Amino acid sequence: MAPDDWVEWLRLIATPGVGSATARRLLAAFGPPAAVLAQRHGALAEAVGPTVASRLQVEPPEWPALLARTQAWLAQPDHHLIALGDAAYPASLLTTPDPPPLLHVVGDPATLSAPRALAVVGSRNPTPQGADNARAFARALAAEGVSIVSGLAAGIDAAAHEGALAAGGRTVAVVGTGVDRVYPARHRALAHQIAAAGCLVSEHPLGTPPLAPHFPRRNRIIAGLTQGTLVVEASLGSGSLITAELATQMGREVFAIPGSIHAPQSRGCHALIRQGAKLVETAEHIHEELRAVWGLAAGTPAPASGATPSPADDPVLAALGHDPTPFDLLQARCGWDTARLQAHLLTLELDGHVQRLPGGLLQRVVRT
């Protein structure tokens, strides 16, 4: 993209009614954005209808402010605009059915073209174990050079980014707002860390607020930037299932971590497994499934994962099992008196092997 070509690209996507599909239709019909904007009303109307044609010929009221804001934003370090067809545009996204015409990037745009990338998505309200799983999988894979892609949302998304950062790896946050806004606001510090270790990316103009329709749409970018999608926890109807479905449609691998049959956050993952998603219990499973896609030799070691203490090593862990369990039931299973059991549970909790859940339930922590 020539130094000033971004102005026409931005003007095109800032036109009300011009989404990614309409923009690509105009580009296919007339060529680059400058040629689109130079067309007569009649020619535009034939391509996209009279209403959008009229809007293309009149600057939106907010255009001068958006233009000035974007110019100031581009003047800052590590701020980039990447248009469809640019050499820097990620090839994996270019081959998807609905690539966005213009990407706003904060950080290193080369991260978008990482040869090994995995989407990690899931519930905004995960269990403590689910958040730990997301961090552990992301940490193990990022340590082996895999770029972790997610959406900066609360819950599993944030845990996945944190895991990648903890490993000193690369991570990409695809946001459903303007890239100059952080949503949720409490992730502002996390967003800065992601930009320093990878990048933030958005298809929306600067200043775009967190509108509900934008988040399902951004999921196609998350899936499109990667060779596989891991769903850690998801209820039925979760937006994470949209990402998984889009990944399947793109011919990418889908992985799901199973959970308790009683946990609502596991039902979406179980549904994906019934539909053909790969059941995974360790990061090694993902590494093995994507070895050929990632171009790894057969002898390449898989990422190391932590091990859960063997049930044979601790009778209380063996009695606890893997489902949330009330204290009384645990005590009945192991036959210990209250004082002894409480003391041992405290030791297990401090060592990170047991966690306490709302309602007085206890759950074993599984380290992937």
Describe the structure.
- The protein is an alpha/beta fold and 368 residues long.
- The protein folds into three domains: 1-73, DNA polymerase, domain 1; 110-289, Rossmann fold (3-Layer(aba) Sandwich), CATH 3.40.50.450; 311-364, Winged helix-like DNA-binding domain superfamily/Winged helix DNA-binding domain (Arc Repressor Mutant, subunit A, Orthogonal Bundle).
- It has helices at residues 6-13, 20-30, 33-37, 41-48, 50-56, 63-74, 91-94, 128-142, 156-166, 188-197, 214-224, 239-249, 264-274, 283-289, 315-320, 327-334, 338-350; strands at 79-83, 102-107, 117-121, 147-150, 171-174, 198-202, 228-231, 253-256, 278-279, 325-326, 354-357, 361-364.
- The strands form two sheets. The chain has a nine-stranded mixed β-sheet, sandwiched between helices.
- Helix 4 (41-48) packs across helix 5 (50-56), helix 8 (128-142) packs parallel to helix 9 (156-166) and helix 9 crosses helix 10 (188-197).
- The chain is elongated, with a radius of gyration of 24 Å.
Key features of this structure:
3 domains; three-stranded antiparallel sheet; DprA_WH; DprA; DNA polymerase, domain 1; elongated; Rossmann fold; DNA protecting protein DprA; single chain; nine-stranded mixed sheet; 368 residues; alpha/beta; DrpA_SLOG; 17 helices; Arc Repressor Mutant, subunit A
The percent of residues in helical segments reads 40-55%
Total number of domains:
3
Distance between the termini: 44 Å
Into which percentage range does the β-strand content fall? 5-15%
CATH architecture descriptor name of the largest domain: 3-Layer(aba) Sandwich
